[in-house]
Design brief:
Structural class: mainly alpha
Number of helices: 8
Number of domains: 2
Order of helices and strands: HHHHHHHH
Distance between the termini: 77 Å
Largest sheet: none
Shape: elongated
Keywords: Membrane, Transmembrane, Transmembrane helix
Number of strands: 0
Protein name: Secreted protein
Helix content: over 70%
Length: about 190
């Protein structure tokens, strides 16, 4: 076989392999970018705590799959009003009973999650389930929960309790929503 014939066979094969590799790389890059945009800081947290970026992305995709299988629902306007009223009462009681108000806020957020259709079987699972639609407010929930745990031991200061209420409120408002479809990607918002 001549060199020209061999090159005529090898070069197209190499070009095809390069094109396939580039295509696979682009697909992976798009997937990574989509997950980064959707999960925001939760993406970075998953990558840092995982064995590899690929493993972290698999975990995030598994969260999306589990989330699709949840029977999530939006609240009726009456249910949203009831929750908003209950939140205002919890917030108003903070002045006289800050520790109890933080406990009530934690309970109210968990109850709201349950009524929306989120499983509430454990804090870490709650975080994973919430991360799909509420990634932008998830760090607030982590911080508030940490203060809530310290509150149970009588170790949280009034200022920490106040901060926890603000953080719970951020997730509460995000979960309460305003009638958007259940599987809509949330951008989150800051609430005071």
């Amino acid at each position: 076989m001549s060199t020209a014939t061999l090159l005529a066979i090898v070069i197209p094969i190499v070009v095809i392999l390069i094109l396939i590799a580039a295509g696979v790389w682009l697909v992976k890059r798009r997937r990574s970018r989509r997950l980064q945009e959707k999960f925001g800081p939760e993406y970075d947290r998953a990558v840092q705590s995982g064995e590899s970026r690929r493993e972290a992305e698999r975990e995030l995709q598994a969260r999306e799959k589990r989330h699709r299988d949840l029977d999530l629902k939006e609240l009726s306007p009456e249910e949203r009003d009831r929750y908003a009223t209950e939140w205002r009462g919890t917030q108003e009681r903070f002045v006289d009973h800050p520790a109890q108000s933080v406990d009530d806020a934690d309970r109210l957020v968990t109850q709201l999650m349950r009524d929306r259709g989120y499983p509430t079987e454990g804090f870490e699972q709650q975080l994973r389930d919430l991360s799909v639609e509420h990634a932008q407010t998830l760090e607030h929930y982590r911080d508030a929960h940490e203060v809530s745990l310290r509150n149970e031991n009588g170790e949280a200061t009034t200022e920490e309790l106040r901060g926890a209420m603000v953080r719970y409120r951020t997730l509460f408002d995000d979960l309460l929503g305003s009638g958007r479809p259940p599987h809509h990607e949330s951008t989150g918002h800051d609430a005071a």
